[in-house]
Amino acid sequence: MTARPPLILLPGLLCDALLWAHQTQTLADIADITVADLTLDDTIEAMADRVLAGAPETFSLVGLSMGGYVAQEIIRKAPGRVERIGLLDTSASPDSPEQKETRKAFLKQLEVGDFRGVTTRLLPLLIHEDKFDDEVLVDTIKASAANVGQDAYVRQQHAIMARPDARKNLENIACPTLVLCGAQDALTPVALHEEMAEKIPKASLVVIEDCGHLTPLERPRAVSAVMRYWLNT
Questions:
Q1: Which of the four pLDDT bands, split at 50, 70 and 90, describes residue 2?
Q2: Beta carbons of 103 and 51 less than 8 angstroms apart
Q3: What is the C-alpha end-to-end distance of the chain, expressed in Å?
Q4: Are 82 and 59 in contact (CB under 8 A)?
Q5: Which has the closest alpha carbon to 216: 229, 205, 226?
Q6: For the residues of 130-147, what is the DSSP string, one character each?
Q7: How confident is the model over 20-52, as pLDDT tens digits?
Q8: CATH number of the domain encompassing residue 165
Q9: pTM
């Protein structure tokens, strides 16, 4: 029996393995899947180093949002180890001053002990407006946030705010690359993905309609189908 190739999935801010539940279940027949823990470090570089230290010699890699920042750092550090890369609902650009101020405002909210309130305030940025009443989806997002916890959330926000400008490295990504996003992604709009896809030599751009930022949770079947095709080509 042929061994399944390793696939590492990288969650976004306040996300854990629940983000990838559909993919880990439905793609298990073609990939040996691991969901990385991105809760322990406060820089994107340290997150990338930790993933690389525990990864097999070669692997495929998919990251969403913050996980996409980590994925880009991993392939910059170890391009020969990454066989293919997926960049979902993410960006190669650093935070704008306005984005940093927004993150600082969310962190400020923690000073009054309102960690759950942070998740509630983030929801309109994370999912399509048509899904605000989807109790299963919303409860999954809130459960992931609770699993990550406040301390890790603070570390992750500091890592995101200090991340480097990765646009200059896009043209060096030589492996097959999936660039995917929700058509209504409010945090990392389609234009950012078009920019990445234009600069990465072997990139394929996929836009999921009627979907916000958390594509693997909002449109799990569509994302899993795209990933299956990408892994098999």
A1: low
A2: no
A3: 20
A4: yes
A5: 226
A6: GGTT-HHHHHHHHHHHHH
A7: 999 999 999 999 999 999 999 999 999 999 999
A8: 3.40.50.1820
A9: 0.96
